[in-house]
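Page header: ASSEMBLY MODEL / two components / 710 residues total.
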Amino acid sequence: MTNDFTVTSLERDLGVALQARLDGRTKPPGSLGKLEALALQVGLIQQTITPQLRHPRMVVFAGDHGAANAGVSAFPQAVTAQMVANFLAGGAAINVLSRQAGLAMSVIDAGVASPCKVPASSEVEFIDAKVAHGTANFIEEAAMSASQCEATMATGAELVCKWHLGGCNAIGFGEMGIGNTASASLITHALADAPLAEVVGRGTGLDDAGLARKRELLGKAAARVAGRSLSPLDVLAEFGGFEIAMMTGAYLAAAQSRMLIVVDGFITNAALLVAHAIEPAVLDYCVFAHCSAEPGHRRQMSYLGVQPLLELDLRLGEGTGAALVFPLIRSALALMNEMAGFADAGVSGKIGDVG
Amino acid sequence: MTNDFTVTSLERDLGVALQARLDGRTKPPGSLGKLEALALQVGLIQQTITPQLRHPRMVVFAGDHGAANAGVSAFPQAVTAQMVANFLAGGAAINVLSRQAGLAMSVIDAGVASPCKVPASSEVEFIDAKVAHGTANFIEEAAMSASQCEATMATGAELVCKWHLGGCNAIGFGEMGIGNTASASLITHALADAPLAEVVGRGTGLDDAGLARKRELLGKAAARVAGRSLSPLDVLAEFGGFEIAMMTGAYLAAAQSRMLIVVDGFITNAALLVAHAIEPAVLDYCVFAHCSAEPGHRRQMSYLGVQPLLELDLRLGEGTGAALVFPLIRSALALMNEMAGFADAGVSGKIGDVG
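Prediction written out in full:
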């Protein structure tokens, strides 16, 4: 598999009818701002003037990074598996926000280093898709082999197809992996035309000394491939995590299945950079939830030419920003579908307008 | 009544316990950004480490402006009553967004020029508190008398006390009144130290010629009081609408009752400027929902030294921005109340941290 995916750009013909429907609601044209753009985008994705979210789902991919043990994170690697257990017990931030937003939730072990404790029952779907017990240390060698990378992407795509067949038409991706901001920084450096120094941040809470050490280690990793011409898949195999590679396949399959995709923070955007480099039209299906406090995130969005909906200084990951945006999307669609028209409501238009 | 209200600043002692509770949840400290600040603020308002929204309500004050017939709006004055009917029929944007956010909704006729058609049954509470059939034309004379202004504020305060006694601890205010951005511009000019030209905008959709005419008319209105020293209540009586005056009293009563107040757009912020000039501590109880496309709104917030949560280019009014923020507030409180702690979840802290 070099590229099994075909993502087509959105056909825009229906845009006229969608805009007319929005303009016919009892409000001045355009006065609902970005919510109108959201409703229009979902209408184009679903090719209907009555777009709706069906069985929306939050999917958290978890994986460990060999580089974590080299000192790129403030937290020990064991936290990845501990947080998976927390997800399955319903106690993490993404659980709370998914419940609030009415999202079903899945957690995927894409490559957690230690075994994941799975409770007898959980509100959260757990899928064991472990490729290996963490990646190799990308500071010294490629994080994964090319064939591992392709198989991991294919698994992500298959999972999305399963949910899509089950009726899901809107999906958000989150991640858990100690050390994965380091991986995201290297991918962003390679694919978003960004100096490494500008896209390395504090992750979940490094102090100044920790940040300096992270910068030095990632400089070594980048130098390891200097001079080689890397394809997007090469970049993913060199620096990715299994959770990032699986998410990359998931993005491509979701866009190919014409699902609405809600994009979260820095790490999920790194996976999107890879998907975008393979099939640029994937962006047409994406809503960008927020801009996080991690400095590379803004750089990614400026490279992709996209704007975030929220700016709440989040820096947690897990898909939390994406979950927070689902109520806004629901509201945008409800406005389109439930508001009265001028004539039905007996409301006059502008002075001087006919009708 | 020159000032029957006493609003006390928030006692901050509980802040330490609230922050400790947030920091004990399974996430890096501070990683939920502005949501943590929100949860902390509501905790301080309610003086509890388990803050909750109870019977949250959206209240839309409607009133007409004598100046509307002079040409300050793109819409005819009849639209105010028509939109009140639309609110009561459930077809307006604020109805849709209040339903989405789980808010009870009230519509108050504070001074609509024409009779409001009230249906036999409605999901929306309607209150007839009409002071008069619209204000006088503030371009030529004071919009209302001092005694009308005080009585209108008192009515707004009484309504809030009624809902508060019914168990409501969080409230958002919206407005409907053709011409009321003009009123808000004059109030903002008078109370927020702002040049008139910078706080006059297109309202619900004036073209360039309409905007020029609005500027000229509002210049005349401002010139009418030039040289006089106006108290906040004088400003409200000179340039306010009945919906704005009633909302001013409502703000003060809500803060005095220790309710969380969600502040919407340009017009609702103009009422807040008056309330703030009377009792500055009212700000402690306010969350600022969004920054609208009306230019004076940013100026108001910079004068008050506050930041909006959302920037969605809304310019509809009705309370729509405030309604959109309630799900974020609910999420912030749910994170505080429902997330697991590190010890309970068996999740490790930072490398080097004790415990």
